[in-house]
Design brief:
This protein is an alpha/beta fold. Helices cover 31% and strands 22% of the residues. The protein has 2 domains: 9-129 and 218-230, Rossmann fold (3-Layer(aba) Sandwich); 138-207, 2-Layer Sandwich (Alpha-Beta Plaits). It has a 6-stranded mixed beta sheet with strand order 2-1-3-6-14-15, with helices on both faces. Strands 8-11-7-12 form a 4-stranded antiparallel beta sheet. A hairpin with a 5-residue loop joins strand 4 and strand 5. The longest helix is centred in the first third of the chain and has 17 residues, at 34-50. It binds ribulose-5-phosphate.
Amino acid sequence: MSQSSGVDPAKLAAAQAAVALVEDGMKLGLGTGSTAAVMVRELAARVAAEGLKLRCAATSQATADLATSLGLRIESLDEIGWLDMTIDGADEVDPDLHLIKGGGAAHLREKVVAAASDRMVVVADPGKVVEILGAFPLPVEVLAFGFETTRKLIRRALDELELGGHDVMQRLRGSDPVITDEGNLILDLHLGCIPDAPALARALAAIPGVVEHGLFLGMCDLAIIGRKDGSVIQLARDADIDADLLANEGE
Ligand SMILES: O=C(CO)[C@H](O)[C@H](O)COP(=O)(O)O
């Protein structure tokens, strides 16, 4: 049975539109986060109702646990090999469908899974649509080994890109460090605005202690933006973004 009461209607609308793209026999990547969780529930409801035969890989342990609890069988990415489509959430989506991801500390596995997919579909609400990336702190997964050295190297890279002076904060849950599914730590880069995302992505990727950053550039093929009234807007790469969406429709 489909979810309804208590579920954010914008997330539900986006999730339902994304799940409508799923076809019998598909190999799917399942994203992480609250919107992706709504999608997983919708997917499980469709599988139960229609008996779809799917093969699914999860982008986090949390998603694997949720999917399994709903009766979906999760396999490893390597068992499946290549995916037809990954459906995931995002923290920010810009007009070129470049993304910031990693608010749930899962962007490493999310990027590996999206990169192994023919198509990446993002499900989000209008609050995620931005003109320029960076208001959401950029998550960077780093090794615990040499953590402070890596933080210094990140600060140096930011200085070189004229993004210096911003907070580079370790993500904590309470007073404990957040540890990712891969056993690493997270630094959140509070940049406010990222004028040149490809340059920042290159600079971060060149730092040895950086495992993966949350900039997803040129990976998303379709963003499905749900609205509170249950309607959706589908944004394909290179399509214009509605000015109303950028104003977040007062949401
Ligand atoms: O990147 C992610 C997890 O690492 C999530 O997809 C992102 O944080 C969006 O989550 P939500 O749908 O809860 O806002």
